[in-house]
Specification:
15 helices; globular
Length: 365
């Protein structure tokens, strides 16, 4: 409430208020997607109220969804369109978040699919586009040397100067949990490999069955490494870990979406929170979820643009002939496009597929 008063007529105050509102919205968003509607006090004047705290009851699905919507919508009007410090919240990132929220909850919230499509129009101003240049433009999106390219709407900013104390800022920690400790920087012929630094351990991996869903000519396959050489002290490696060693030497393939690129103690890749490819796929999905019918040529083109960048054929008639077929194609495409970007669980829930796909592996570690 006090921040509301300070912000009136003051650009810096409005920006801070917008950041707070979007932070609160995203906190509620992730709590909601983990636990469902949860009791919360959304009126700042009641935070210290004993009566309010003793009257915490689980809200309805619609109530909590609306709380999230209202905070993001308010943030759009308060946040700046551009910022001098990359990584700070912008109005476009708030638009992206609201578009995603409208897509997730539009099946029971009246008019939200329309709102999501309107947000696409607000974002589609020519400011963002798919990165299509370079030998592998998909991998180039995530490169340390290509930060804040035109495909990135928002990312967590990291740097090679980052470290384990807050004074050093952020660093990119995933590789330490993606890469085994026994990788060799060279192969058995002494040629350099992509793994010229070791990790702590391979805590996360990619299932071979999922990797096989990438077409052979899909350039996004480069985000996964299906073999590595085991280091030997004082000599060349003789053992190569491959798919044949699944369950023995490793549990799955290596994630190389953010490969080692700098000879520094810590890597400085940014972690994307919002990309233009996501906006395109959301726009296609919003249209068909709203209409319940086969997609328009515009919706199909949104998906095909992502596929063309990946170097694979456009969707066939069997994938665009009905709403169900098209939505299934989008879910598959999202899996390949956003591997390890933190979207899969919410995507599967939206497609009513989370329980069905996770139950068969219940109890596996």
């Amino acid at each position: 409430h006090q921040l509301d008063i300070v912000a009136q007529g003051d650009a810096a105050g409005e920006q801070l208020l917008g950041e707070v509102k979007l932070c609160r919205a995203m906190l509620m968003y992730f709590i909601y997607h983990l636990y469902g509607p949860m009791p919360m006090i959304t009126d700042p004047a009641l935070v210290d109220s004993d009566a309010a705290q003793k009257n915490l009851v689980r809200p309805t699905l619609e109530e909590m969804a609306q709380w999230i919507y209202d905070d993001i919508d308010a943030a759009i009007g308060l946040l700046p369109e551009t910022v001098s410090e990359p990584g700070r919240y912008t109005a476009d990132y708030a638009r992206f978040c609201l578009m995603k929220h409208c897509l997730n909850e539009g099946s029971y919230m009246d008019g939200w699919y329309d709102k999501g499509l309107a947000l696409y129009d607000e974002l589609n101003t020519g400011k963002y586009s798919l990165l299509t240049t370079g030998e592998n433009p998909f991998m180039k999106v995530f490169s340390y040397f290509n930060k804040w390219n035109d495909e990135i709407i928002m990312a967590v900013s990291n740097g090679t100067e980052g470290g384990t104390s807050y004074e050093q800022g952020n660093f990119f920690p995933y590789l330490m949990s993606f890469i085994p400790a026994d990788v060799s920087p060279v192969d058995n012929q002494g040629n350099p490999t992509a793994l010229w630094k070791t990790g702590w351990a391979q805590y996360y991996n990619v299932a071979p069955a999922f990797y096989d869903k990438y077409a052979t000519d899909d350039i996004r396959r480069a985000a996964v490494l299906d073999n590595y050489w085991v280091k030997v002290d004082g000599g060349l490696p003789t053992k190569q870990v491959t798919a044949a060693n699944i369950g023995v030497s490793w549990d799955g393939f290596l994630i190389m979406k953010w490969p080692y690129e700098t000879d520094t103690s810590y890597q400085g890749h940014d972690f994307p929170l919002a990309r233009w490819s996501d906006v395109l796929l959301m726009r296609a999905e919003l249209e068909v979820r709203k209409s319940g019918t086969a997609p328009s040529s515009d919706a199909i083109e949104c998906v095909n643009a992502v596929r063309r960048r990946a170097g694979i054929p456009e969707l066939g008639a069997d994938e665009t002939g009905s709403a169900t077929a098209f939505l299934n194609a989008i879910l598959d495409e999202r899996g390949r496009e956003f591997l390890y970007e933190g979207m899969r669980k919410i995507d599967l829930i939206r497609f009513n597929a989370y329980a069905q796909k996770t139950y068969p592996v219940k109890g596996f570690v």
